[in-house]
TrEMBL record:
Residues 41-231 form the AB hydrolase-1 domain. Belongs to the AB hydrolase superfamily. FUS2 hydrolase family. This is AB hydrolase-1 domain-containing protein. Pfam families: Abhydrolase_6 (PF12697). Residues 105-115 have a biased composition (Gly residues). It comes from Kitasatospora phosalacinea. GO terms for molecular function: catalytic activity. InterPro entries: AB_hydrolase_1, AB_hydrolase_fold, FrsA_esterase. The lineage of its organism: Bacteria, Bacillati, Actinomycetota, Actinomycetes, Kitasatosporales. Residues 102-132 are annotated as: Disordered.
Length: 277
């Protein structure tokens, strides 16, 4: 992907640091940009996915003048064999956001935990914050990334809006299918660590911290995974949360992209349109 972006999108920046590796991509046009720069959406992948996989959401946001920071955190993507997925994930996302906003200049250079295989030492060009409005930051999380994004948004006041796509409201460890439990054990560093992490996944516990945020929940009517209570249950805790329900959509709604992706990208762009959101 790095070689392709070098040719097609030279402004793309690969960033890395303690517990994170990401791609920062900037819109080509001035649409959406204010005096302080473009709004930014942090994209958070799920349990068994990576930052490079979600081209369609990234492209949709870029087309609307929104910059995108797609991030692998602990236990994800290029870091799947590194630091474990767990409750500290939001801190890695915070460090990644700090990096692109210029809070940690030089972070990610050298062979750190977030270094991507094949990345040249010193090739990271993040850290300047150029072109990004720090007052217009949102997040989109996909699958388990929906919970990770909500946790990040609940604890980082810079996040002004959140969209959760096929995210979990709560998990029941004993009802999960073997593929999910095995993958979680691998990503979390063992069965005991996975069980402890699963016990923490509860959007109801985050609801008081999410009341300040515009929220969009995107759900497919055919997204039924044993042991998973879908995030649409959050509407009972937070009536202000908007629900986009696609009856024929499966998990991540890959079979129904026209029925949710344009509306979701529009929603994020509109919510982040005003400076200070």
């Amino acid at each position: 992907m790095g070689d392709a972006l070098a040719l097609l999108e030279p402004s793309a920046r690969r960033i890395s640091g303690e517990g994170y590796a990401g791609w920062l991509r900037l819109p080509r046009t001035g649409e959406g940009a204010g005096a302080e720069g473009s709004p930014l959406v942090v994209l958070v992948p799920g349990m068994d996915s990576a930052k490079e996989e979600f081209h369609r959401p990234v492209d949709a946001l870029l087309a609307r003048g929104v910059a995108v920071l797609a991030v692998d955190g602990p236990g994800q993507g290029v870091l799947a064999a590194g630091p474990a997925l767990g409750p500290d994930h939001r801190h890695a996302l915070r460090r990644a956001l700090d990096h692109v906003l210029g809070k940690e200049p030089g972070q990610g250079r050298g062979q750190g935990q977030g270094q991507e295989p094949g990345q040249e030492q010193g090739s990271d060009r993040g850290g300047s914050g150029a072109g990004i409005d720090p007052g217009r930051v949102g997040v989109i999380g996909l699958s388990l990334g929906g919970y990770l994004a909500a946790d990040f948004a609940a604890h980082d006041p810079r996040v002004r809006a959140a969209a959760l796509v096929s995210g979990p409201y709560r998990l029941d460890q004993d009802a999960l299918v073997p593929f999910v439990t095995a993958t979680l054990a691998q990503r979390c560093g063992g069965d005991a660590a996975a069980r402890e992490f699963v016990a923490r996944i509860d959007l109801a516990a985050l609801a008081p911290r999410l009341r300040r945020l515009p929220l969009l929940l995107v759900e497919g009517g055919r997204d039924r995974i044993p042991g998973v209570t879908n995030a649409e249950a959050l509407t009972a805790d937070l009536p202000h949360a908007e629900l986009l329900h696609v009856p024929h959509g499966n998990h991540l709604l890959g079979n129904a992209l026209p029925d949710w992706l344009p509306d979701t990208a529009d929603w994020l762009a509109d919510v982040l349109a005003a400076p200070g959101a």
